[in-house]
Predict the 3D structure of the following.
Amino acid sequence: MNINIASYCRLTNHKLEVNDIDIQIQKTEASSLNDIYRHLNLSYPKFFKMDNLSKAGFLASELLLKNIIIDKETPKKDMAIVLMNRSASLDNDRTYQTTIQDENNFFPSPSVFVYTLSNIVNGEIAIRNKIMGESSFYISENFSPEKIYSAVMNTFSDPNINQVICGWVDYEFNECDVLLLLIRKENQEKIPFNVNNIYHLYT
Amino acid sequence: MIYQWSNNIISSLGFTTEENYTAVKQGNTGLKYYKNPFDFPEDAMLSLIDDEHLNNAFSSINTKQKTAYTRFEKAAILSVYKALEKTNIDVKSKKVVFILSTTKGNVELLDKKESEFYEAERVYLWRSAQLITSFFDNPNEAIIVSNACISGAAAQITALRLLQQKIYDFAIVIGADVLSKFIISGFQSFKSLSVDICKPFDKNRCGLNLGEAAATIIYSSIENNRPLLSNNIVLLNGAIANDANHISGPSRTGDGLSIAIEKTLQNTNIQDIALINAHGTATPYNDDMESMGITANQLENIPINSLKGFLGHTLGAAGVLETILSGVALLDNMLLKSNGSENPETICPLNIVLNNQNSFKTHFLKLLSGFGGCNAAILLKKT
Amino acid sequence: MEALILELKKEIIEVLNLEELTPEDINEDAPLFVEGLGLDSIDALELIVLMEKNYGIKLNNAAEGRDIFKSVRIMAEYIAKNRTK
């Protein structure tokens, strides 16, 4: 059995690459994540309720799984989501803080507060694709292929897990930095899942 | 399996595991009614770590006078210090790793009034983790698990996997969260706070109480030949599963929790289980959801408790804190009562522990569920 | 009342991030939750904030909201009767 990188998506402010193909998107100044959503012709209005971190992770997961035969409606107990980033949910935490900073204008927002946890992006991807396996979020100061590799291999120690969506999902100060990988146990040899290949796809 | 070598709890009920256990066994709650806590414009029932007590205890161990530590960091460091004190582990070794479980760390520093004494980087969890490991001169980068309210179980599952692979000899698992206007206002906006002491699994349950705590378990793949208590607690197995249903609302079927329990209990004789220490937040939906996940695995007759009526919902600390208390109780052949539960009523009936009772069985199951649709189960036993 | 209904529709679109809708798309007599706009429990909580922030009406729990948030028209009628700002 081989552990392969079955698909990948790299999404930053300047680059959108899916399995070696650059995708060009007409971007308006303010909201490039919304532009990608429109470009993909998705019909998922919940997208607009998400914070930036979840939007970024959600879009990358849509692109990651675009050419993979996957039935979104069937519950998938054999699939896990393992993500990591630098800033947790601080981008959205700062937005929430603005709703409580002023004592004379103190209206804590529940729809912002709900995104003040980094692992909500796992939840959004899980809901969209009915992924019911393990779901984990780790924090690391810097992008680390070693840590991603180790976390995913640990997840595979559960013999029921056959595929893992994993990677780096960070969004802070208008900077989007996402690399998502779909890792699968497969019979064929393809791009092997290892530290070098994670690093190579990130840079 | 991995062995508990030592543990500690820092909470409203005391700064040692023994103080916390004694208080809980006597039925004392750490929950108190606070007027405008943290400048929050309403009152709330909370379990808070006493500031003066924390500062005094911390300054007596603090050798790094130059660093100004936050409440969160002080509580976490103090907890690790007290857990290590009871052992001869060389914390400076490469074979010792810290695993930090927290949801919000120093988030209160986003408030302009709170941030002036600290550098901007202090709101990042990795920065707090660096300060914690460097306090103990531990050479490894800490592993930081931020998985909402299941973080404390997720961190123990991570410890289990790393230690079983012999990558490290010891894992110091810290669960810590402190409260702030940020966290309290958020839960209040969810209308999920109870102004009275919460009533887990009760017919009249109407919401949760928040709490703060730092708790530490030191695990090892090596059996402790000098156990601190007459028996040891070992972590056998654990699993995480997602509901894939809603980002904040508990599943209406308990499917995710049911999967986590099923995976955790593979090859386990259910007759050996003394207790299910549930998440039991006392919100109407959480407790119903848990009753369904438990019943789906035919565990509804096993005694079940929730410790939230003693120490509140301590967020990222909960999984570590409640695992310690349940383990110590089991070593004492004791099932702790589910404080606040009077007239249990959930969608599937459960066997709630209403008064402290003895049990001589060996295993217990710890459950947690959280935002993002995540659920965790871990199985421990005494040896 | 019609002016309040229009104002309310604009506010709902804004606070609930109903990006792809315009006020004309919302039928003021259609149910807001489940069918209709397909709103959920977090949206209901956000509408409670809207009521307090924009109209000075304080609702203590989500259950109270359930009757008031049946449709935009019922919401507008409740606001007209109870608003303090």
